[in-house]
């Protein structure tokens, strides 16, 4: 069962750009909270992006089966802490999403990134 993060303490740690800032950390599991603007998203965001991708590919004449969609969704949900927005960054989630989708659907990384960045509507 995933941790319901509770934090009332902070510790000094480096950020991605090397600046030292106070970061909250979970009293139960010890995970350090992400304080950057690169906040993670819930899995629903990625399932909607997958639906958009399916529509785009359908419009281009490529069929994405229900089995492919289910396999991708199952693998994303089985990745430990993929849905834990407390500490995972959106950048890391994008990397994971792109690698999983490309396992099951032959599609370019650029198209996947554009779908994730909501350029296609």
Automatic annotation (TrEMBL):
It comes from the Archaea. This is Uncharacterized protein. It comes from Archaeoglobus sulfaticallidus PM70-1.
């Amino acid at each position: 069962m995933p941790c319901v993060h509770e934090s009332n303490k902070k510790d000094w740690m480096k950020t991605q750009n090397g600046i030292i800032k106070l970061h909250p950390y979970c009293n139960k599991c010890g995970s350090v909270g992400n304080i950057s603007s690169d906040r993670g998203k819930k899995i629903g965001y990625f399932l909607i992006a997958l639906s958009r991708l399916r529509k785009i590919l359908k419009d281009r004449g490529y069929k994405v089966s229900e089995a492919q969609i289910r396999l991708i969704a199952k693998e994303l949900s089985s990745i430990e802490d993929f849905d834990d927005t407390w500490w995972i960054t959106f950048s890391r989630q994008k990397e994971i999403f792109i690698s999983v989708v490309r396992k099951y659907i032959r599609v370019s990384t650029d198209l996947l990134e554009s779908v994730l960045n909501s350029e296609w509507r």
